[in-house]
Amino acid sequence: MDPHRLVLIRSGTTRLRHRVGSGYLVAPRLVLTSGHILRNGESGDYWGQIQVRVGHPGRSETVRTGAELVWTHPQGLDVALLLIHDEIDVPGSVRWGHPVDTAPLRYEGLGFPLASAEGGRDVEHLRGVLPPLSSGARGLYVLDQEPAPDLRDDGRKAWGGASGTAVFCEDHLVGVVIRDDRSYGNRRLRALPAHHFVRDDRFEALLRRYADGPPRLTEIGAAPPKARPAAERSPAEQETERLLWSVLGGRINYAAHTRALVRLLGYTVPDSHEPTMPDLAALVAAHPRALPSLSGTLTTALTGEDERTRLTDVLTRARAGGLCLLLSLEECEHLLELLRGICKDQPTLVPRAAREALRYAWLPDPLNRTHLCADDLEHVIEHLESVSDSERVPDYTPPVPALLRLVEYVAAALGREAGSELRSWSDRVAARTSIHPAALAERRTDAGHWAARQQSPFSSVVVEVSRARTEPRESYYCRVLLARADGTHAPFHEAESVARTPEEVARRVRDAVEVVSDELGPTDAPHATVLVTRDSLHLPIDEWNPGAPNMFVPDQPIGAEFCITLSCPEMSDLVRSREREHRRRWESGHAAPLVVDDERVTPPRLRRLLQTTHRDVTRVVLHGSLEQRDALLELCLALGVPVVLWDRRADCPADAAGLRHLDPTGPLADLPERVRVFRGTAFDEPETFPARPALVWEEPDRRPRPESLSLQDPSEGVHAS
C-alpha cells in the first residue's frame, strides 16, 4: 500500500449535490474506485464532472486534476476505473491478491470517511481483520474494523466517503470497499473482491495500455501466528500458555493436536511442523475459537476424570477472561447452517424465542427486531456466547450458556422432529463443555412449556424516560417494553444503559414501534406510551426527531409518525386512592369533557368540580398560564382523571384557540390519532399552527407495573434469565 497513490474523489458540480469517495492509483493515469460514488443518487446517472486529488496530504504534495469514467463492470458490480487528465509519476506497480484458505488475514487501506472530516476530508488508516469465512452468499469480503467511529447523531453515515478504498492484505490489493454494515454498529465494512472484476476483458485492456500489463492474481494465505519473545508476550498470551500447559504439559502427542488445530483454522503446514507451547498459546490468543476447537479433539484423548475436570476448568476460566468464545469452529459453522435455514423459512422465530428465553439479558440489536436476517447471525451468536444463564446448576458444574438456552427454545418451537437436529447440536456442545445433563434438561423442559403456550401479539410500546442530570448536554436514560394486549410484555433491550440524546431516544422508540407494527394488523395503528415523572410531564418528547428512516422518506418528529401519549405512574405511588378512582372514571363511560379555560379556576375549585358535578369525568382539557396549569394538571392526575390534554406553548386562556383544529372535545376514542395528525400539520406549518399538544392517556388494563421498569445501570456480569 503506497500512500502516494491515495486518491480523493469528488463527483458532481458545485451547484448540484456532489459525492465524495476514495480511490487508489493502479496505474499512472488509472484510478480504481467504487462505482456508486460516481452516480447522481436521484437520477442514477453518472456525473459528467469528476475532480480528484492524488497523494497523501500528510506525506507529500498532492496533485489536483480532472478525471473521466472509462470503465464500469458489465454485470453491474460496484466498481469503476477513472482516467485522470494528468499522468502521475509513482514508483513500482500494484500487486493483486486473492485470499485463500479460511484463516483471517490482517488488512489495511487508506480512505476519506466522513467521521474524519474536520473542515475538510482527512485521511483515515483503515485496518483490522478480513475473515474469509464471513463472506456470505453475496461473495463480499467482510472487514472487521479495529478503530471504528460511533453512529452519528445527524443520521449521516460515519463511513460515508470510505467507499472506493483499496483493501490490502500482505501488500497485495485484494478488493475495494463498497459499503458499511450498520447491523454491526460501524464495526464492519464490506468490500468487493478483486478476483470478481480483474479478469474482465475491458479491465485487462485498460491495464495493458496504462500500466505494466494485465493484473496477475497471487493467492494469499495467512501464516500461523508465531510466539514472540518471552519479554514481549502479552498478559493474555502468558495466561493462555499457563492454562494450556496445565492440560497438555508432558503429553507426547500435543504437537499432533496442534497441527490438526492449525489446519482446522485454515493454515497450511507440513507434517514436519513442530509447534512449541508458546506457538500454540499465540495461536489460541489470536483465534477466539481455537481453544474450543482444540478441546474437541482433546475430549476423546483425555480419558481420566481429573484430566477432563482440568480441561473444563481451563475452558471456563478462558471464557471468563475473554481468551476464547464458547463454540468451536465446527460447532459454530453447523449452528450457522441450521439457523440460516430457519431465518429463511421463519424469520420471526429466533427473535420471538429470544425475547422469551432471554428476557433479562441485553440482546444485540438484530434480536430486537421482528425479523432476523441471516447476515446478522454471526453477530448474534458471538454476542450470546459471552452471556451466561443465571439459572441454578448442579454444584461444581459450568452454567448453561444463553446461546444453548435460546437454541432449546427455537428447537421447541419447531417441534419434536424439526427441532431434533438443534437439540442434538446442544447435546454435543454440552458434553464437550461438561454442562450437566440435568441442567440442560431443565432448560429443555422450560422451552417445551413456552412452546405449548400461545403468546398474544405485541400491540403497543411502553417507554420510560428520565433525565440524565449529571450529563453536560441534554440527555436521557430510557427503557423500552413491547406490550401485548393480554397485559404481558417483553423488554426491548438496548446494547447498554447510557445517557442518550433526544434524537437517539427517538430512534429507539421508532425501532420498537416498527417491531410492533410488524405484528399488528394492516388497519391497526401503533401506539407508544411514555412513562415520566411529574417534573417531566412537559418534556417535548413528541417533538424529538429520530431523523430520516431511509434515503427516500423525509424526517419528522416521532409524535407525527405515530400516536405518542404520556403516563405518570409516580402519581399512583404518592396518592393511595388514585388507582381506584382512575379505574372508576374510565369504566363510567362519561364522555363529556371538562374544559378548564377560566383563570379563576383554582386547585380547590377544580377539586370540588372533579369530586361533585364532574365526579365521573374521563377527560379534562386544560388552558391557561403555565404556572396555573402545572398545579391543575397534577391535581387531575391525583384524582384519577385518565385523559388530560393541554398545550405546552399556551400562556393564557386566549391561547385555547390553538387547539381548536384538533377538536379537543370531540370523540374520545380517536383523540390520540387526532393529536398525531395535528402534530404533523404543526411540523409542516409551525407559524400557522403554533400549539404543541401534550396528552396524558392512561388505559387501566394497558399500563405496565411501574416496578417492572428500572433505569439503573446494569451491574457487571449480565445474565440471561
Describe the structure.
The chain has a six-stranded antiparallel barrel. A six-stranded antiparallel sheet has the order 8-9-10-13-12-11, with no helix packed on it. The chain has a five-stranded mixed sheet with strand order 17-16-15-18-19. α7 runs antiparallel to α11 (420-432), α8 packs across α10 (402-414) and α10 packs antiparallel against α11 (420-432). The chain contains 19 helices and 23 strands. Helices cover 31% and strands 19% of the residues. The model is unreliable at 706-721 (pLDDT under 50).
Notable characteristics:
single chain, 721 residues, 19 helices
The class by helix and strand makeup works out as: alpha+beta
Unreliable residue runs: 706-721
Rg is: 31 Å
The helix count comes to 19
What is the molecular shape? Answer: flat
Summarize the structure in short.
With 721 residues, the chain is α+β, with helices and mostly antiparallel strands. Helix content is 31%, strand content 19%. A hairpin with a 2-residue loop joins strand 11 and strand 12.
Show the helix and strand layout.
Blueprint: E1 6-11, E2 19-27, E3 30-33, E4 50-54, E5 63-72, E6 80-84, E7 96-99, E8 105-111, E9 124-130, E10 141-145, E11 166-169, E12 172-180, E13 188-193, H1 201-210, E14 217-220, H2 235-248, H3 254-264, H4 277-286, H5 290-301, H6 305-320, H7 329-345, H8 349-357, H9 377-385, H10 402-414, H11 420-432, H12 437-452, E15 458-467, E16 476-484, E17 489-491, H13 502-519, E18 527-531, H14 558-561, E19 563-567, H15 570-574, H16 578-588, E20 594-596, H17 603-611, E21 619-622, H18 626-638, E22 643-647, H19 671-684, E23 693-697
Parallel strand pairs: 7-14, 15-18, 18-19, 20-21, 21-22
Antiparallel strand pairs: 1-2, 1-4, 2-3, 3-6, 4-5, 5-6, 8-9, 9-10, 10-13, 11-12, 12-13, 15-16, 16-17, 22-23
